[in-house]
Amino acid sequence: MNVLLINPSTPPTFWSFPEQVLFSGRKALVPPLGLLTVAALLPDHWNLRLVDLAAREVDEESWNWAEIVMLSGMIAQKENLIDLVKEAKQRGKTVVVGGPYVSSVPDEVYAADCDFLVRGEAEDLIGTLIHHLETGHSREVIEAQSKPDLSGSPTPRFDLINFDDYLTLSIQTSRGCPFDCEFCDIVNLYGRRPRCKTPEQVMRELERIYKLGWRREVFIADDNFIGNRSHAVAVLSRLTPWMKRHGEPFNFFVQASVNLGQDLELIDMMTHANFAHVFVGVESPDEDVLAASHKSQNIKNPMVESLNNIVKNGLSVLASFIIGFDGEKKGAGNRIAAFVEETNIPVVMLNTMQVLPNTKLWNRLKSEGRLIEDSTSGLSTGASLNYVPRRPEDEILEEYVQTWDYLYEPSRFLARTYRYYLSMRPTRAALGMKETHEQPESMQKDRRLPEALGDILRFTRLCLRQGLLYNCRRQYWRQIFGMLKHNPSRFVPYIMRSIMGEDMFRIRKALLKNPRTFQQKC
């Protein structure tokens, strides 16, 4: 069997980061981990190719070579996903579609005439799919009846991608989240009980990408890395000595709930293993809004204190906020802006509420007759609302744009970023902390030379923009020398956050022109 796995294109979103990707000389942010995992589950004697449309197009030779086309996608990718189903069928291919979108909303893709629609996680379904493909069945819906045990999940086929295409690589150590936020679709897709890979599996995956030559950031794509604390501790306990033995080849970016800020021991373990960044869903500074949306963990744990604890102890936070909750009062944007200024978080993901299929919020709004199902896009950056809000939609969108404008005015963004990294404790090396394992000198040279050349290029591009072209160029240089003087060990992450500002400035500019056409303008 010749199998072509395709990851559909995605409209511009917060997570596109085209400027950061451009600064780094790459083509896309992160490869499609789901398809890489599916590829590892397929028979060894099948021939596989993977094309990620975020990085490159499908060439005619690959179309002609393929007998089977496998597609996966999220709701934001649905338009291109459906187009690819139709094109593959026109070319006479057997088409298999799975992933989060069709697991929640299968009808439209099935109507596009795919041969097999797979609903659920692949580990427990792949045997049935392979049998149907080998025996010539078609027009089947293969649906999971339970969540798989991840101890049998294989190491993804990282060899199918070109590492030079990507800024970040991803692995996954668990699926699911113990919390039950009304607006989140994780529980519907992956459950409230986090299911975990063994620490040995995680180390095998890292060893694999290390041997293939990866030496940059690794995104741990768990829904909540600390959802099962004992699992996180077990992974970190194995990871830290491995990292030291291998010369610290990676830094890590994870998603975690805000209660991490009350667990200083766990933060210390994470930074010891070279974790650098954490994505936290703050959502709203208003406790009544959090309570109504069942975001109880953000009420039980004092958010400002928790976020400050995270940064002071060496982790950078990327926070998420939403405008458009039920019960939200006028001025929500101003309160979010004030919260961000108080905590000095440089980069925040500011969303309009996009109600996702089959969440508790979706079901509630549908029962109230307030859901606009046909407008559901999964795109929360500049998208119109797909529900009838309690307060005027124009008021919500105006606050949304004004908040983007305030937070990402370049001078204000740079000042906030500077304060943030000045407040972060120096790195372990700068503090003179003794490590258990020394880094072999040969590993240091092997890893650092090519990355150092890339860092110089990125820094030069940043200086040309923010240090010469912007009105805040004097501020830029003052802060550059200030970081070098007052907290030099945090200079590189400060620069990387400054580069991320370029993407935020781009989004700000597009939203100020017209928030309703953001995807077209970007």
Q: Runs with pLDDT <50, length 5+?
A: 434-447
**Strand count, sense and closure of the main sheet?**
6 strands, parallel
**CATH class membership of the domain at 168-350:** Alpha Beta
Global geometry: globular
Helix content: 40-55%
Structural class: alpha/beta
Q: In the CATH scheme, what's the topology name of the domain at 168-350?
A: TIM Barrel
Helical segment count:
23
Mean pLDDT: 93
**Terminal CA distance:** 39 Å
Percentage of β-strand residues: 5-15%
Beta-strand segment tally: 14
Q: So, CATH architecture of the domain at 168-350? A: Alpha-Beta Barrel
Give the strand order of the largest sheet, numbering strands 1, 2, ... along the chain: 2-1-3-4-5-6
CATH homology-level superfamily of the domain at 168-350? Aldolase class I
Evaluate the radius of gyration: 23 Å
Describe the structure.
The chain is α/β, with parallel strands linked by helices. Among the domains are: 2-143, Rossmann fold; 168-350, Aldolase class I (TIM Barrel, Alpha-Beta Barrel), CATH 3.20.20. It is built from 23 helices and 14 strands. It has helices at residues 18-23, 33-41, 60-65, 78-90, 100-104, 107-111, 126-135, 186-190, 199-211, 229-245, 264-272, 287-292, 297-300, 303-312, 332-343, 360-367, 393-407, 410-423, 428-431, 441-469, 473-486, 491-513, 518-521, and strands at 2-7, 47-52, 68-72, 94-98, 116-119, 140-143, 169-171, 174-175, 195-196, 218-220, 252-255, 275-283, 316-323, 348-352. It has a six-stranded parallel β-sheet with strand order 2-1-3-4-5-6, with helices on both faces. It has a six-stranded parallel β-sheet with strand order 7-10-11-12-13-14. Helix 4 links the parallel strand 3 and strand 4 (94-98). Helix 10 (229-245) runs parallel beside helix 11 (264-272), helix 15 (332-343) packs parallel to helix 17 and helix 17 (393-407) packs antiparallel against helix 22. It is globular. The relative contact order is 0.09. Mean pLDDT is 93; it is low at 434-447.
